[in-house]
Amino acid sequence: MQTATFDFTGSVVLVTGGGSGIGLAISRAFLDAGATVAISGRHRERLEQALEGHPAERAAALPADVSDGAQVAGLVADVVKRFGRLDVVISNAAGYEAGPVTELADDAWERLRATNVDAFFHLVKAALPHLAAPGGDLVAVSSVSGDRGDWGQAAYNAIKAAISNFVRALALDWGSAGVRLNAVAPAFTLTELTEGVGRDDASLAPFVDRIALGRPGEPEDVAPAVLFLASDAPPYVTGVVLPVDGGTSASTGQPHV
Predict the structure, then answer these.
(1) Where in the sequence numbering do the catalytic residues fall?
(2) 64-105 residue pLDDT tens
(3) What is the pLDDT of residue 198?
(4) Which CATH number fits the domain 12-189+222-243, given the four candidates 3.40.630.10, 3.40.190.10, 2.60.200.30, 3.40.50.720?
(5) Which parts of the chain are beta strand (E)?
């Protein structure tokens, strides 16, 4: 991954959902760019594996259930206590549920909302006061599904739309404190969450057909965009939801001919 253009030496970064998929790629990209990185997730072993090979003084695995407000407050406090500051927060922890909304179980909806929207609420509530001290950055991982509809994914579309608009509104509220809030919006990306789609050419073909660049996204495609938004490179950019989708959202939806 090319991260040499970004220098986060001296910065303290917290990544939720940092042990796998897009979060793992983001965590490693920040570490490669010189940052001190704390990653959070439910499973300590996975977090520790993600940080193997990185110096302990610049990497911390901090298990937490981000749908629990008390645990999130404790997570943020722990990062600040360990490293003395908090400069960048990446809200990446997420869940996925699909299917017709009339067939979606109540507990599935509650789980989806808690893992995505409640977790984001708890995180910004705990982290924003600390980010205001250095004039820090928060980047959320949303989705192109938050800007448009998908067949059979109404609940997920609604959840991601909430994240995208949450970011826009908070950018207004916290701009005067020197905090920039932005989001990236990937489209179909090869992660554990999308394993059920399959990895063979036949099952991927309908997705690839909608992607201008002709291939599915990889977690490593998303990470550089996150680092860009969190860096000093775009000092006048806030409240943006940046598509990182290979051109998926450039289409009107007409068939590829």
Answers:
(1) 156
(2) 999 999 999 999 999 999 999 999 999 999 888 888 999 999
(3) 63
(4) 3.40.50.720
(5) 12-16, 36-41, 59-63, 88-91, 137-141, 180-186, 241-244
